[in-house]
């Protein structure tokens, strides 16, 4: 379906093109590789980016490749595992691992064997999976493929697929390929800004925030679901490190920067040491930046309460205050909680997030009546700037006073900030149980394998709070 448009239909030309792209790469040495991310545009546009990921596969004993791709031509609510025997490319047939495919489809109702996403629909064929196969045929000697096209890409569907894959994959002979382009049809500078957010989340291994921002369409990647599913599967297989190998967009090829499509190559792999997931990038603020954020929070609350409108934060902010970070604002009155609301995911620049959630804490926390003008002089402000979220692999590693928790099961979700446990005198078990209760689920639900526990640290500061760092 893609031959002759996305890549050459002639076998010799196709092989020569791929070999040339691979020869131009300088592969990054990565030992225990679990998955790669590759773009799926025409080879003339994105082939040089895809080659950076595929070059890693040379010489590896890979017998099975699970390719997860998005669907551009059909709409359905599940992950479609191809029910045929093979895919064809100009370089020959690629056999489907039908036994693995059948087992995978039996593991969750959101995974089905189907031709949806794999055949022509109204004269159009899905290219995002097929374009990966010729590269695989040139770098691997003998392999079978498990072709998966995701119709729905919400977090629960991604989780179901990722968990099922992790349960089925045994040993080092299987590789996961996530097929995705990044932002579409923005001016060059806007595209690189948008794509940088996705690539940073990949490097920080924050797939929950990534999934949320894709669902809300504030970030763009047509294969965001395949990336998240690949990260979930990789993590459960012990691969908790990531590396962005290359980024470019169509403007770098054509010279036309008015409307571009972004492409990224990345790898997920096991850490060389036994320490598990690496800590998130250290984030800090200067004393002046903290004071500025506190001033924004106070003025936002005062403007919202007195004038019933939003506070204008302006644009003359430091680079760190314009980074997108999750944050909470806690209001207290005479030492007692008066309101607390925040964004977990990094959806807005930090200065804007603090402005918004401060006003929400004052007026929209449903546990309290709205703050009145008479109360404003009595309020105490505390800001918590959140690190990226990482799934907890061992609850014994949760650090009281340092880690905050997000517990998620299906549509239920609860969050408690790092400072809550020591303030309440909780131990680790009580912290887990109370986060479950905050989510509206049973206190022991953290033990359920269908429950995900994420931890984060926070840079906490305020009117009467000693400044703390993310250590």
Molecular shape: globular
Q: Could you name the CATH homologous superfamily of the largest domain? A: LigB-like
Mean pLDDT: 93
Please identify the oligomeric state.
Answer: single chain
Tally of alpha and pi helices: 13
The major beta sheet can be summarized as: 9 strands, mixed
| Beta strand % | 15-25%
Uncertain parts: 274-280, 465-471
Query: What's the gyration radius in Å?
Result: 24 Å
Percentage of residues assigned to helices? 25-40%
Describe the protein in words:
This protein is an alpha+beta fold and 471 residues long. The chain has 13 helices and 19 strands. The strands form 4 sheets. Strands 1, 2, 3, 6, 7, 8, 9, 10 and 11 form a 9-stranded mixed β-sheet that branches. Strands 13-12-14-19 form a 4-stranded antiparallel β-sheet, covered by helices on one side. A hairpin with a 2-residue loop joins β16 and β17. α7 runs antiparallel to α8. The longest helix is centred in the middle third of the chain and has 21 residues. It is globular, with a radius of gyration of 24 Å.
């Amino acid at each position: 379906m893609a031959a002759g448009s996305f890549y050459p239909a002639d076998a010799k030309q196709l092989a020569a093109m791929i070999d040339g792209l691979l020869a131009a790469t300088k592969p990054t040495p990565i030992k225990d590789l679990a998955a790669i991310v590759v773009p799926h545009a025409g080879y003339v546009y994105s082939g040089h980016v895809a080659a950076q990921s595929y070059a890693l596969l040379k010489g590896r004993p890979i017998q099975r490749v699970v390719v997860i791709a998005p669907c551009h031509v059909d709409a359905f609510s599940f992950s479609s595992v191809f029910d045929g025997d093979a895919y064809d490319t100009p370089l020959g047939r690629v056999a489907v691992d039908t036994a693995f495919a059948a087992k995978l489809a039996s593991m969750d109702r959101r995974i089905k064997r189907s031709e949806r996403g794999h055949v022509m629909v109204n004269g159009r064929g899905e290219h995002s999976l097929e374009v990966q196969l010729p590269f695989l045929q040139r770098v691997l000697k003998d392999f079978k493929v498990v072709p998966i096209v995701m119709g729905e890409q919400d977090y629960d569907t991604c989780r179901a697929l990722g968990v099922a894959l992790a349960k089925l994959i045994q040993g080092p002979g299987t590789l996961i390929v996530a097929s995705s382009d990044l932002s579409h049809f923005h001016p060059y500078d806007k595209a690189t800004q948008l794509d940088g957010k996705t690539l940073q989340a990949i490097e920080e291994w924050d797939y929950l925030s990534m999934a949320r921002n894709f669902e809300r369409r504030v970030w763009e990647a047509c294969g965001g679901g395949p990336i998240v599913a690949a990260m979930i599967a990789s993590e459960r297989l012990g691969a908790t490190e990531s590396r962005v190998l290359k980024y470019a967009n169509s403007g770098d090829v054509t010279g036309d920067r008015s409307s571009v499509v972004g492409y990224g190559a990345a790898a997920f792999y096991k850490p060389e040491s036994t320490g598990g997931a690496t800590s998130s990038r250290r984030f800090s603020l200067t004393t002046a930046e903290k004071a500025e954020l506190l001033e924004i929070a106070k003025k936002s609350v005062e403007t919202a309460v007195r004038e019933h409108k939003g506070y204008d934060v302006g644009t003359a902010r430091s680079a760190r205050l314009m980074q997108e970070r999750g944050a909470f604002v806690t209001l207290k009155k005479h030492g007692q909680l008066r309101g607390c609301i925040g964004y977990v995911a990094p959806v807005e620049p930090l200065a804007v997030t603090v402005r918004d959630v401060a006003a929400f804490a004052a007026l929209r926390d449903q546990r309290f009546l709205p703050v009145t003008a008479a109360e404003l002089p009595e309020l105490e402000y505390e800001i918590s700037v959140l690190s990226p979220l990482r799934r907890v692999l061992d609850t014994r590693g949760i650090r009281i006073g340092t880690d905050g928790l997000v517990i998620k099961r299906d549509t239920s979700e609860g969050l408690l900030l790092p400072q809550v446990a020591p303030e309440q005198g909780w131990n680790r078990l009580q912290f887990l149980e109370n986060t479950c209760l905050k989510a509206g689920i049973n206190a022991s639900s953290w033990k359920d394998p269908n429950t995900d526990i994420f931890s984060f640290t926070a840079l906490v500061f305020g009117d009467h709070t000693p400044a703390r760092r993310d250590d």
